[in-house]
Amino acid sequence: MKKPLVIGITGGSASGKTTFLNNLMSAFSAEEVCLISQDNYYLPKEEQPVDDEGVQNFDLPESVNLQAYAKDIEKLKGGRTVQLKEYTFNNPNITPRLLNFESAPIIIVEGLFVFYDQNLSDLIDIRVFIDAQEHIKLKRRIIRDSEERNEGLEEVLYRYEKHVQPTYDKYIAPFKSSAHLIIPNNTTFDVGLEILISHLKKHVQA
To answer: What is the enclosing helix (H) or strand (E) of 135?
Structure first.
């Protein structure tokens, strides 16, 4: 197998990374691409840091086992298989599955801190930043967290102001300029998606 190409994708919370990734993945077969997300490396709820009000903050680098994430990406780059337990967003009603990740010509890594953490950043060949205006991200976050995570508006706004926005300003936005491709997603990411797919298809077919 040819040397895998590692694509790193980041952006602020609710910038549209998941939807973008779903569309990107659908353009390739399971043998051509492997997606391994930072989400699967969150520490257990009882190990999460708390803010000054005693509220757990899942939006900090120390909320995630970034060292293990980097080691697993290295394994995939070396052609090996990675196995780990699915992260269920601390939902006690979901039994986590055991996930298998097979190396592929394209390895996609995504998460808030994949540009910030130096060990992760050094493993990335192509850096993609999904960008959206703040008011749009906030609207998406309110809808998502209320529908998918059953959080009230007050809780969503608190986390956004105290956790999400400070994390974006400190750990995500400063690395936007290092991206090879910045994809605006206020309304649609279609053009940026097509550009990236075209480039990756050439790598797979080479």
So the answer is: helix 134-148
Which residues are bridge partners to 10 per DSSP?
Answer: 129
State how far the Cα of 99 lies from the Cα of 83, in Å rounded to an integer. 6
Q: What is the CATH number of domain 5-205?
A: 3.40.50.300
Q: Residue 104 in contact with residue 31, Cβ under 8 Å?
A: yes
Please spell the DSSP secondary structure of 47-103, one letter per residue: GS-B-TTS-B--SSGGGB-HHHHHHHHHHHHTT--EEEEPP-TT-TTSPPPEEEE--
Give the torsion through C-alpha atoms of 90, 95, 98, 102, to 10 deg.
-70
Please state, in angstroms and as integers, the Cα–Cα distance from residue 115 to each residue in 109, 121, 173, 205, following that order: 10, 5, 10, 27
Instruction: Give residue-wise pLDDT tens across range 37-65.
Output: 999 999 988 999 999 999 999 999 999 99
pLDDT of amino acid 69: 98
| pTM (2 d.p.) | 0.92
